[in-house]
Every structure is written in structure tokens, then in C-alpha cells.
């Protein structure tokens, strides 16, 4: 990863612009693994970025990607969900809110089994505020 946060932010912005301009996103099938494969790895890495503003931007971008890709995005949840859901433990409410927004978007397109598989990551965080947010979101999701 680049040490310069501005370069990392520029990459996030570039992907965001592509997704915004190309709905539905044509990343399905073999294309998703090929040309978009690096995109998933880069976004996964940005979820662990020390600059939380970049993590928030990536969460918003991941929400857009889920809406653009639709149901096929379920296949990529294994790359994104663990890092995304672990961010629910962040002390900053803006980060937790971004996680919940992203989770809302992904939950519209992935299977219930996928959500249930990864929810323990969010429900088991040490931070009480994050755990509370995760429990509230889970209860709302499961009551739909």
C-alpha cells in the first residue's frame, strides 16, 4: 500500500467515479475475478487503513458497489464482510454509522445465510457501542 494517504484516497475516488457512472456495474462472471479482482483486494485493505476517513469512504463505495452489482456481490462477501464488520468496534460513531449503511446496502443483495454467517464478527466486538449497534441492526434485519 502507498504510504501517502492522498494516493490511497485518489484510488478510492477513481473507483467511486467508475461505479457512479456505470450502473449496473459490469463486473460479473469471469470479469469480476479478472479485472475487478484487484479492486476487491484494494478495498479490503482500505477497510484496515489507519486513516479512518479513508475507511469511511470505502464503506460508502462498497455500498454503491453492492447496489451496482446486485445479487452476484454475495460471492465477494467473504472478502469484505470480516474487515467491514470488525470496524463496528471503532470509537467513532461516524465509522460505525458507515458500517451500518454499508451493511444495509449489502443486505439488500446477499443471502440471509451470508449475513448470519458473518454477524458474529460484529456481535463479538469488545466495544460496547459497536456491539450495541450490531445487535440493533441484527434485530432490525431479522425482523424484516
TrEMBL record:
Chief location bin: cytoplasm
GO molecular function: microtubule plus end polymerase; microtubule plus-end binding
Keywords, in A-Z order: Cytoplasm, Cytoskeleton
Top-level division of the source organism's lineage: Eukaryota
UniProt-annotated location(s): Cytoplasm, Cytoskeleton
Annotated Gene3D superfamilies: Leucine-rich Repeat Variant
Signal peptide: none
GO BP annotations, alphabetical order: establishment or maintenance of microtubule cytoskeleton polarity; microtubule polymerization; spindle organization
Transmembrane segments: none
HEAT repeat extents: 80-118
Name the UniProt record assigns to this protein: CLASP N-terminal domain-containing protein
Species, as recorded: Hanusia phi
